[in-house]
Amino acid sequence: MNTTTRIWPRLAAFAAAAIVIQLSLSAAGKVYYLTQLTMAVYYAIVVMGLSLLMGYAGQVSLGQGAFFAIGGYTSAFLTTHNMAGYRGAVWFDLLDKCGVIVSRKNLYDDTLVLTVAPWLAFIMAILLTVVIAAVIGYPSLRLRGHYLAMATLGFGLIIHCILIGSPALGAADGITGVPGLSVGGLAVSGKSAVRVQNYYIAWAVAIAVLVLLRNLVESRMGRALRAIHDSEAAASAMGVNTPKLKLEVFMVSAALAAMAGSLLTHYNEGIGPSESSAFKSVRYLALVAAGGMANLEGALVVSTLLVFLSLRGWFGTYDNAVFGIILIAIVALAPQGPFRQLGLWMNRYRSLYKPGKEARGGAS
Amino acid sequence: MVQALQYFFSGVTVGSVYAIVAIGFNIIYSATGVLNFAQGEFVMLGGMVAITLASFLPVPVAVAVAVAIVTLFGCGLELVFFRRLRSHSVLHMIIITIGLSIVIQELALHVWDEKVRSLPYFTGNEASSVKLVGAALSPQVIWVLGTAGVVVVLLQLFYKRTLYGRAMRACSSNPEAAMLVGINTGNMRTAAFGLSAGLGALAGCVISPISMTHYEMGPGLAIKGFAAGILGGLGNPMAAVAGGLIVGLIEAFSVSVIPSAFKDVAAFAILLAMLFLRPHGLFGRPSGVSVREV
């Protein structure tokens, strides 16, 4: 009860931090940092979704990169594939009458380009991903930990092979020239004129996702998830429909990955097959671990920071190695997440200097 | 007909490598309960170390030293990470091996580079070929098949005939009972990691002249080896051989049906299909401890 009321000060802190960062970067004349920050916030949405699945429900997925790519590629394909050739077909005219077809002029030869409206493509991207997640998740989630990780890794590799091997999806180059996604005057687009606006859009989406997931884990469903994490047998004995619940959470995390993928594709004006690589999926895993597994706020803060540093090129050629080392270090040294471990160490340190208290008391 | 035979031999060749990787999975899995995602990295390391050594040593010595080095490396991984973390959950073990896989790859990228390398052919060169019932084979294929065969036979003898091998089997079937009869289960786990790493390294050496060695080859090999292991049923090395050959053959023949860019899709699709339909393998039967959770 009190945890739900305590969320608002934290949200206010997030919003304040976002504003302070934007103002100080603008004052320092480094507005271009906002571009990478915006991208990092979108990636953080994927990480929050995976945190729900991994931290709360205890299921490992190495397929988040694939879901991200499916979302992004669906949006990119639908908003760039020229359907002018289908004019006259019944289904196309029907779509056109519904107002979901947009037209623009090709920049090079002035030909007419007819594509699906970006907002509809966005919705279809999420729906398609959720359906795929259901099809993959239904059998995979019946498997134990090891097997589930392998099954989702295999699924991710299949998607990666298909994206790289399909000329219709741009093969190794991916899809470029994706238009912005505009809804009611707000546009998700990489144009530098709307950079500040996009920075706030990304934060607004991320905070909305945080509130949603927060409410979810504080609910009856969230308690059931934690029960599954601790013991599936006990949870199902208590009447939790474990397969159904795990599948639902899997679908939610896939939908969030697809949403982030679609938004980031509009923001970057394109997407490439590297988004679906196994490295990307492992990176999301590392970020969830670094954020403290079952810690949504931690996931948001830590992954925004680390992805931002990675996008700025701080880790140089050791980019992937840094995330691998984070994974190993966190799990080996601080399996409950860095913040809790830090707290434990501080308690132990403090209790050493407090007379009358058992020195080992804080170490438990 | 000749073409089918050619496909057949290429399938059997890659299949026998998958089989060795699958056996490696099996050894570690049955001794420690950890599914080692870094299994493919042992193969890559074996090839890489042997290639470096071969620049100033004769090839057989280079291969032997490389296998020894990677074996020690495998033992070292167990001592540093898995022995300390035995109390951790399965989730944590998976995550650690995934992290190790990434870190080893990145280390290999920085120690060597992103170039594709290969060992020289053990006998003959890339142009020489052996005629076998109408199909032209590189002599290296004979080396790969021979090595795989010898490994399987020796491993079987080790498990069935030697005291050490029996102790290792005892550890996997019942660790507590093994401990009670005086087997040092911790050391057995270390040995299992070493054995598995050494086998992987050997496979990496013999396959290197044909399929090249590259720092990124690990995960693909690991997942195909895992597919082979699952196909046969985890915990059964002989079935892993059959599984490996089946995956290799399907992959080789799939090239004649689907574009070769999608070749890997076939192997991964088998893995998914097996996991979903028969997670206990083609030859295994559903045991008391199910791989399904519900």
Can you describe this structure?
The complex is a heterodimer of chains A (364) and B (294). Chain A is mainly α and 364 residues long. Chain A is 68% helix and 5% strand. Chain A is built from 15 helices and six strands. In chain A, the strands form three sheets. Chain A has a two-stranded antiparallel ribbon with strand order 1-2. Chain A has a two-stranded antiparallel ribbon with strand order 3-6. A two-stranded antiparallel sheet of chain A has the order 4-5. In chain A, helix 3 (33-56) crosses helix 12 and helix 12 (278-291) packs across helix 13 (296-311). Chain B is mainly α. Chain B has one domain. Chain B contains eleven helices and two strands, in the order H-H-H-H-E-E-H-H-H-H-H-H-H. Chain B has helices at residues 2-32, 39-54, 59-82, 90-111, 139-161, 163-173, 175-180, 185-211, 217-232, 237-254, 263-277, and strands spanning 130-132, 135-137. In chain B, strands 1-2 form a two-stranded antiparallel ribbon. In chain B, helix 1 packs antiparallel against helix 8 (185-211) and helix 1 packs antiparallel against helix 10 (237-254). The longest helix of chain B is centred in the N-terminal third of the chain and has 31 residues, at 2-32. The model of chain B is unreliable at 288-294 (pLDDT under 50). Chains A and B meet through helix 6, helix 7, helix 12 and helix 14 of A and helix 4, helix 9 and helix 11 of B.
In short:
The complex is a heterodimer of chains A (364) and B (294). With 364 residues, chain A is mainly alpha-helical. Helices cover 68% and strands 5% of the residues of chain A.
Total count of helical runs of at least 4 residues of chain B:
11
Overall average residue pLDDT of chain B: 83
Going across the major beta sheet of chain A, what is the strand order? Answer: 1-2
H/E series of chain B: HHHHEEHHHHHHH
Mean pLDDT of chain A: 82
- Indicate how many domains the architecture of chain A comprises: 1
Residue share in helices of chain A?
55-70%
Count of spatially separate domains of chain B? 1
